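Q: Mind making up any chain with structure tokens?
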Amino acid sequence: MSLIGIDVGTSGCKVAVFSEDGCMLASAYEEYDYQRSQPGWAELDTLQVWDVVRRAIHKAVAGVTNDPIKALTVSSLGEAVVPVTNDREILGPSLLNFDVRGAEYLAELYRVVDDEQLYQINGNTLGNHYSLTKLKWIKQHQPDLYQQTDKFLHWSGFVSFMLGADAAVDYSLANRTLLFDLDRCDWSDELLDRVGLDRSKLPRTVPSGSVIGSISRSVADELGLPAGIPIVSGGHDQCCNGVGCGVIEPGRAMYGMGTYITMMPVFRQRREPGGMIERGLNTEHHAVPGRYVSFIYNLGGALVKWFRDTFATAERQQAKATGQDIYATLTAEMPAGPSSVMALPHWGPTGPPKFIADSCGVMAGLRLETSRGEILKGILEATAFYLRECFESLPTTGITIDDFRAVGGGSKSDAWIQICADILGRPFVRATINEAGALGAAIIAGTGSGIFPSLEVGVETMVKLDRTFYPDPRQQRLYDDRFEKYRRLWPLMADYLRELT
């Protein structure tokens, strides 16, 4: 028996088929870009992405023979939702979390629910990167679309729905709306009433690993899937990443190296809200029952993609034609020690603790002799420095991290992982399968369909580890000094921005 994991991200879709013991039998990846029809807007063309997802599924399934598929699960990006009808008609695009639309409602929302009240119910504080403000914007600016929509579905639920499942959302993704009651595990009528949104527009909530339907005959015929196989509810991609690399117990954290660089620690009990709010830390259900997670993140992977597209256009085209790894070529140019370039990784909206929407990036220390490799290494170091600021404040909340599990496309790079280990001062363990979101989804599919009695057993059976990267004491001391210099950059930049406005 084999299991399918589908991982729908901000810039691409990965589909992989795994055997029950965790061997990847086939996979397919398809990339897409988000659209910017106006400055500050960022959305996915739902019809285009759905076509890409179907194509990736078909390619992956075609690569498997003589191994019957038992079940599938979808992992996906967090806050973005898709408007659909009950007849599975797609009604519009999907607004991404860094789309500026909805920011105008924050002042009004603060008057009806403050951060402490919201955190007690939902485990998050207000921000424009959640679904809530996007839904408010659609309701006011596109009232016809809002009225025609039967359900707003997160991408995991949307893809499952289009494959034949019922309209549903798991707890981890429901949390990304700001409308979910963390303790009751259902939509909060109190919050919905305060913010003026309709519960009927939202799907039912279910735990990760619940069977929510089966593959329809028409979809099965189109994609080469067996009709009737179970569709199991998935989760937020970061939570599925955690499952796919074995981050399911306290003391361990996932270090996702994709479009977002994300540090995700695990804990068992909800923490005191004041300390979490002060540090910009959320509380969300893990895909594993009885566990919670929090996210510390920045757009580091997007910065690396920007670097590739800006400084290596010719090499990118050549690598694409020859099948080479462009990132391996670029990281090979980096110097051995810390870079002479110091960067502030604010190319886009930042994550915890400040959630700064209107900053901008900085590269300091540039000289005529500065190499391309030094610039890239300065960017990689900056993304880790950013996370270190939050990491150092975790013990006061009672959350501890003894080691990290590195996953995502960036984890293919030995050099990048070593930078992270040296800056954060903790061992980094790389999973054998770096696309852990798809593997985590497959493990959840195996649990929901009865192959594994629990997610813990599924993880033990399917997750394999590659190697451990330990901090280099000498590099760590050098980075400690560089980190103190890095910490001065944002206060200087904040003063500069205030002067401009």
Summary: The chain has 20 helices and 24 strands. The chain has a mean pLDDT of 94. Residues 372-391 form the longest helix (20 residues).
